[in-house]
Amino acid sequence: MNRKTETLLHYGYSILMGTSAAPNTGVGVWDKADAFKRLAAIADFMKFVDDKQKVRITFEYDPDYPTALLITEATLKL
What we know:
Layout: H1 3-10, E1 25-31, H2 32-38, H3 42-46, E2 56-60, E3 67-73
Antiparallel strand pairs: 1-3, 2-3
C-alpha cells in the first residue's frame, strides 16, 4: 500500500479520493513536521480557485501519525 492510500485510510477516507472518481478533488500528503508550515501556501492556491463555485478544504492532522492530509475540493478558474 502506498503512502497516500495509507494516509487516506488512516483518516477515514476512500482510496478513490483524488482520482477521476472524485473530480475537482486534490489530495496532499505531507510529513507531519512540515504540515503547519505548508498550510501557508493555501493563500497562493486560492488565487486559482473559482470563487463563483463551492469550495471545501479539509486539513487532517494526528500528532501520533507520521503524515497529515490536505483535501481540496474546488473548481479552478479557466
